[in-house]
Design a protein that fits this description.
Blueprint lengths: L7 H7 L25 H8 L14 H14 L3 E5 L2 H12 L5 E5 L4 H13 L3 E5 L5 H6 L5 E7 L11 H11 L3 E4 L4 H4 L9 E5 L13 E5 L13 H4 L10 H5 L3 H14 L5 H12 L1 H20 L4 E5 L9 H7 L7 E6 L2 H11 L4 E2 L9 E3 L11 H6 L6 E5 L5 H13 L3
Parallel strand pairs: 2-3, 2-4, 4-5, 5-6, 10-11
Antiparallel strand pairs: 1-7, 6-7, 8-9, 9-12, 11-12
């Protein structure tokens, strides 16, 4: 891994892998399921967590490990664990923290799939979730805590309402409650936002989005900050400090310190749930990360230009983009996203939902897809797609208005993007 003195643009290219003399310059794909040993003692060390070598690709592989090291470096974490999807990353993170009877406080304006995971599936597991307005005061957030509260969760940039999370406020609240803060940094990426530097304890990603950037590879990532003191809250998190009998009484925090959460995540969650990233997807995501800094700069520039155009268009009612002056989250974006507010914006077409649907049908360059974070410009109507499982009340709480159109602004020429949106809007009469 490159020295930490390197800036993030260099880390995007160099972190996670350095070719030895005569070895491949590009990180290779190890398309393999198992690994050979020559004595039983070496294999026993693997099962006792005494060795970090590979034994079975469900628990890790050289290619996936290179991606994990790269993402840990980009986020400034101590370790990272890859998963088969962003939702899998959210799931294993919370199940590594919580068990039946526990409670999570989550911002209401999170991605619809995560809202369902927390509010429906976790409820079946006996884990309760309270969804809150992320603009509540620190004291109001703390007042939502219960004795069984085990985590706070939010998105650095809400998907698709695009509220900017006040990470430092949430961090202070988490510390007062005595629980970790988990921040989904998918829409911002580590190039634009660094949650660990603002007090988050863990960062999660759907690497399917900007990290891959080319709509080829599904994946997720959990990055550990390494600063949460599990011993100080041992009564809440016995799994981190008490003996694990499935590993002969090993105590994770005592043995692995600032990487304890990641070791437990791999040793228990990947072992038992099997939501492992495939080597080929890891390889393709590594290629995507090589240009992440370049793409996020262009995505942000294009999104800001399109937001300015749409704001003044006679066929729009409103535009939401945190990088737009006058936006309610503008000042917060300047603090947490100083290099750009990302490639996603939302807006409402005059005439409501029916007009918005007609607008989508009129587009020629932009694609209607259930995705963000692609080099191609894409659009979606969240109320009828990604958030349709939510009640109308929950949609509105999360900022999902009936007429909202989500735009993932690509890397095409901005004049071509603007021309496509202009012609599509002019046909809505």
């Amino acid at each position: 891994m490159p020295d930490k003195k390197y800036r993030i643009e260099t880390q995007c290219i160099q972190a996670g892998y350095k070719a030895e003399s005569g070895q491949p310059q590009v990180p290779p794909i190890v398309q393999n399921t198992t690994y050979r040993y020559y004595n039983a003692a070496d294999v026993a060390k693997l099962f006792d967590l005494e060795s970090a070598d590979f034994m079975y690709t469900r628990l890790g592989s050289p290619t996936v490990n290179m991606l994990e090291e790269k993402m840990a470096a980009l986020e400034g974490g101590t370790a990272a664990i890859a998963a088969s999807s962003g939702q899998a990353a959210n799931m294993i993170t919370m199940l590594n923290i919580c068990e039946a009877g526990d409670h999570i406080i989550a911002a209401a304006n999170i991605y619809g799939g995560t809202h369902n995971l927390f509010g429906v599936t976790f409820k079946k597991m006996g884990i309760d979730v309270t969804f809150i307005d992320q603009n509540l005061s620190e004291d109001e957030i703390v007042a939502m805590a219960r004795p069984e509260t085990r985590a706070l969760f939010g998105e650095s940039l809400g998907n698709p309402a695009l509220g900017v999370l006040d990470i430092e406020k949430f961090s202070r609240a988490a510390k007062r409650i005595g629980v970790p803060l988990v921040v989904d940094n998918t829409l911002a990426s580590p190039v634009l936002c660094r949650p660990l530097e603002h007090g988050a304890d863990f960062v999660v990603h759907s690497t399917t989005k900007w990290s891959d950037g080319h709509a080829t590879s599904v994946g997720g990532m959990v990055v550990e900050g390494g600063k949460f003191d599990w011993n100080a809250h041992a009564d809440k998190f016995p799994g981190m400090v008490e003996p694990d009998e499935s590993y002969h009484g090993l105590k994770y925090y005592e043995k692995f310190g600032d990487q304890a959460f990641s070791v437990k995540l791999r040793a228990q969650m990947l072992r038992d749930l099997g939501c492992t990233m495939a080597p080929m997807n890891a390889f393709l995501t590594i290629q995507g990360l090589d240009t992440l800094h370049l793409r996020m700069e262009r995505h942000s520039q294009n999104a800001l230009a399109l937001a300015k155009f749409l704001k003044d268009h006679p066929m729009t009612d409103w535009v939401k983009y945190p990088g737009l002056e006058g936006d309610e989250d503008y000042e917060r974006a300047q603090k947490y996203l100083p290099k750009g507010a990302g490639g996603v914006l939302s807006f409402g077409v005059k005439g409501g939902r029916a007009a918005g649907e007609k607008f989508l049908e009129n587009l020629e360059l932009a694609s209607i897809v259930v995705h963000v974070g692609d080099i191609r410009t894409s659009v979606l109507h969240p109320a009828s797609t990604t958030h349709r499982q939510l009640s109308e009340e929950d949609q509105l709480k999360g900022g999902i208005l009936p007429e909202l159109i989500r735009v993932s602004v690509g890397c095409e020429n901005i004049e071509d993007i603007i021309a496509d949106f202009d012609q599509a809007l002019k046909k809505v009469k």
